[in-house]
Amino acid sequence: MTRIAVIGAGAVGSAIASALVRAGHAVTLIEARSDVGAGTSKANTAIWHTGFDAKPGTLEARLVARGYQLLAERADEMNWVLERTGAILVAWNEEQFARLGSIIANATAVGYTAVEHLRADEVYAAEPHLGPGALGGLLVPDEGLLDPWSIVIGLATDAVVNGATLLRSAPLTAVESIPDGYLLTTGAGHVEVDWVVNAAGLDSDHVDRMFGEDGFTITPRRGELIVFDKLARRLVDHVILPVPTATTKGVLVSPTVYGNVLLGPTADDIHDRAATGTTQTGLDGLLEKGRAILPELLDEEVTATYAGLRAASEHSDYCYELFPAKHYVRVGGIRSTGISSCLAIAEDVVSQFEELGIRSQPLTNPVSVPMPTLAEDRLRPYADADLIAEDPAYGDIACLCEKVTLGEVRDSLRSPVPAVDIDGVRRRTRAVAGRCQGFHCGARISALVEGRDG
Ligand SMILES: Cc1cc2nc3c(=O)[nH]c(=O)nc-3n(C[C@H](O)[C@H](O)[C@H](O)COP(=O)(O)OP(=O)(O)OC[C@H]3O[C@@H](n4cnc5c(N)ncnc54)[C@H](O)[C@@H]3O)c2cc1C
To answer: How many C-beta atoms surround the C-beta of residue 273 within 10 A?
Structure first.
């Protein structure tokens, strides 16, 4: 059995850890923070990308397209929510209109052939609340929505229940070469392994240097977003995309699987890798763009704002490479599409190991732990009479806005990768993520997290 450490328990590292452990390897998943999925994987736009706009011939184009398909294949087993809403890419001026043909050509070059031209009247028929001025657009029927929180927590859980060791609050701080492997120093002690996979997101370049490589430098690209109340959901059915530029996919308006509407993200290159706060300038700019795209959106209540940092580098593709002589795999710079591609990256890592003869006996009966049901289109525990009859804790609503029950909060604190703080409970249950942002329920949920009687 090959001992493999995966550094970073975001979507990418968790997916790799899960795939490696299912392939029969001895995996240690090492995460700096106190919880999994608490880096970029928790703060993004939650689009299930087809990869229609990826650059042909890139790793990203191949892995997003494959990842899209793999997410769909695993969704039922993991109880992940994917909504194939379709996206409408809108041209708002002549220059953008003129570029629609090249976007279709790009999609065809990456193997996605379902993009359709829409006349302006067809755009408005599909999205009647759009602002004036659309000249036409494209329908990308397979773009959709996903729930990034359940995907990353599900994959970390999958790794753990199938035998991986998860170390949290365990930043990798030093690396020592030993015969055929490494002695890793982490915040949770030493780990001896044969191979290391670097999936450290925003710090993947720093970790790369610990292994004597110097292949890229991360410059965080901050994306700020505004979450509108669920009453705004009636205004939009598709993901409304702009015509992308060289640096960003641009500001979009999108429903979420939880029934809200997102406006964002911005794209600003910054230097502080921890600057995940929003800015007045960023939010003002978004509101201005939102007013043009979907004017009525601005009459709706804002539930929350947040920002995520894309792990952008000087390269326009993923920084993914295997170094056989070093027993080291770099999976860095996964900028804007890593939730959609994570399963494909993981599949590729396993197959590259196999090609090198690093193979083991795959698990014959891997365990699957379905994620809690968080999406609006499913039967949630508070409405499930049979479940409540079995366990009245599912009838006791702890978070009124998101209708999260005491039973779900309790489960999140006892799960195989339990929440350790209120943010962890939020991402596992949606408690405190609703209209009141924890004003009503925060104290009760905090008490439960701290083991006091809620
Ligand atoms: C604004 C925005 C919008 C986006 N929209 C989408 C979208 O719609 N669809 C989509 O598919 N993708 C989207 N993305 C991209 C997606 O979020 C990322 O590609 C993905 O989350 C990257 O996952 P990761 O595991 O590489 O990184 P992360 O989630 O950041 O995980 C890396 C982990 O490594 C840990 N770590 C770092 N250093 C160390 C160390 N020394 N020791 C141990 N652990 C360490 C970190 O704590 C972190 O948890 C978006 C991103 C942003 C910012």
So the answer is: 16
Query: Which atom of ligand 1 is least distant from the CA of 335?
Result: 19
Report the atom number in ligand 1 closest to the C-alpha of 340: 11
Decide: helix, strand or coil at residue 109. helix
pLDDT in tens, 351-394: 999 999 999 999 999 999 999 998 877 899 999 999 999 999 99
How many C-beta atoms lie closer than 10 Å to residue 168's C-beta?
19
pLDDT tens digits along 400-425: 999 999 999 999 999 999 999 999 99
Q: Which residues line ligand 1 (CB under 6 A)?
A: 7-13, 30-33, 38-41, 44-47, 49, 171-172, 199-203, 207, 223, 265, 308-310, 334-340
SS3 at position 91 = strand
Q: 126 alpha carbon to ligand 1 midpoint, in Å?
A: 33
Mean pLDDT of the chain: 96
User: Which residues belong to the active site?
Assistant: 49
Strands 221-228 and 195-198, by their bridges, are unpaired
Ligand 1 mean position, distance from CA 340 (Å) = 12
Please name which of 216, 188, 161 lies closest in space to residue 33, comparing C-alpha atoms.
188
Domains of the chain: 3-44+148-216+315-355 (3.50.50.60), 87-141+219-310 (3.30.9.10), 381-449 (no CATH)
Helix H segments across 294-421? 338-355, 385-390, 406-414
Q: What is the arithmetic mean of pLDDT over 275-283? A: 97
Structure confidence at residue 198 as a pLDDT band (50, 70, 90): very high
Provide the β-strand partners of residue 177: 182
- Give the ligand 1 atom nearest the CA of 47: 8
Residue nearest to atom 1 of ligand 1 (CA): 223
Give 201 Cα–ligand 1 centroid separation in angstroms: 5
Q: Where do the DSSP E strands lie in 293-435?
A: 302-310, 319-323, 328-332, 397-399, 404-405
